[in-house]
Design a protein that fits this description.
It is a single chain. The chain has 655 residues and is of the alpha/beta class. The chain is 54% helix and 20% strand. The longest helix has 88 residues, at 23-110.
Amino acid sequence: MTKLAIFFQSIPFAISLSKNVSFGTVLFFCALIVIIASAIICLQSKKKHKLEKEYKKAKGSLEESMIELESANLQLIASEEELHRQFLEIQEQKEKLRLSKERYKLAIEGAEVGIWEYDVAEKKVYTSKKGKEILGRQDIEGNILTPKQIKEIVLDGDFEELIEKYCRHIDNKTDTIEARIRIRVQKDKYAWVNVRGKALRDESGRALRLAGSITNINKEILAEAKIKKLAYYDALTNLPNRAYFNLIMEEYINESKYEKFAIILIDLDNFKSINDSMGHSFGDEIIDKAAKKIEKHLVNNELLIRFGGDEFVIVVPGVKTNKEIKQMAEDILAEFEMPFYNEDLTFHITLSMGIATYPYDGEKSEELLKHADMALYDVKVNGKNAYKMFSFELDEQFNQRINMERDLRKAIENNEFELYYQPKLDLKMERVYGFEALIRWIHPEKGIISPLDFIPLAEETGLIIPIGEWVIRDVVEQLKKWNSSGLYNMTIALNLSPKQFKGVYLLELFNSIKEDQQIDMSRLEVEITESTALENIDSAIFILEELKKLGVKVALDDFGTGYSSLNYLTQLPIDYIKIDKQFINDTIKQKSGEAIIKSVIELAHACNFKVIAEGVETASQMEFLGKENCDMVQGYYISEPLPVDRAIELAVMKY
């Protein structure tokens, strides 16, 4: 209750008092009451004003506090959201880390990778579960291995390599450790593992611990071995190949592994004829059997390499004397004296060998091969079935051969050849029946070069093909000239080389001559040797029959030096047999030999062949041959080979 209300409540009491008090007193009291009331009202008004002022002030302060509180609240909300975001981010990173650890674990297990750590001070190796599995030591409790246990696992030589690499890395000589080592998995079995690692060092560079990985690389090693086998080994014989030879030479020469070593270059004699006649499968079988025969005589660290085709190389390391190399070559030649067996076939194969030694015959593999090949070539041209050690005389001969080949190619380009003609005398008609065309090389500096000096080289290099074609075409031109001059019955014989006779173009050439040139083809004769004809008798029969269809006559040259089989003679479509001059000389000197010549002539006539005796050099030889009904003779007793103009003079005269 307010003071003013109390005041008004007291008025009735005051009036009641007035009955006993005077009016003035009452008025005084009334005025006093009014004053008091006014004062009270004034006080209350001031108080109210003050309260309102304080209220407004408080209200302002409250509003400011509310604004600050609201701002703080907003900041708190923002902080809470940031904390929540950071919390979510941390949770996300934790999840990523968990997934990453799982993926890492799966990757390691899937890749067969083990983790290891080595404490240098404590000399203990910690390895992961997968590491123990790779090492095959699941039986060890815990994950700690000692160096002794590791030594028991790793093969001795590989452990030494691992320790060497560890020491180099500890001494800060390498950035990392990496080694391929073999570990024992069973009593007689091992597995390949790859060890990688790197050291953690203190500020001074001292290694505190090493950590790394261990991986099973058996599959990789097997794959590498397979690739190496494909790259460096021959599929037929399982011998190392030429690429492997190059690696060995690099090791022997560049790394100076041996002070002296030798290479023996081997070539099977006449192997191509075996391949051509018996087929490549048969040839492959021979190559394999030949390799096994040679391998029998590799007693130390010698290495047999199949160089390609029918060529082999023996690398003989640590040679002390040439005698031991020669002995090996002789033993191998003796081995090949034993026949080869193939089902119902029994046959012999010989081989030729050229030998070069390091460093005397060359300090590079190319030089050694070149010189061994020179020695081999010399064996080939001198009868085969032998060996020869290189000498620098052979180098000079080889250079001469190179120069001759170069000059021979120029001779073909510059037409430096000329045909000489050696007459063949018909003993019954006592006149020149025809000629044999013999080529001469007219060298611009060296003069006339005999065919004995250049034909073997031409045959070997294949230059005999263009030379032989030139001979055939020049003979045809000469027959046409003789025909124009009235020598209608004169014949010319020309020699076919083995390479010409095998060429598919030969029949095409003679067919084109028949079509394009107006000559009587029966005046053209071809001569082939026994060995050429019998090398592939079926092919020879076909080619000779085709030539005879064109009218060409055929002579079997050098009779008496080859097979001389009656069976072959009756199969071949030939017109003449030419008895070799050596056969004539050797047999006529002996009375018993005369009977052989007589038998040969009778045999030829029985087969409807005419007989031409070559190399007749004496009157007695000619007289004997005439007496025994030999059809024709040829040799220096009648005439040496002549240039074409002098040959014509003989053609028109009676002997």
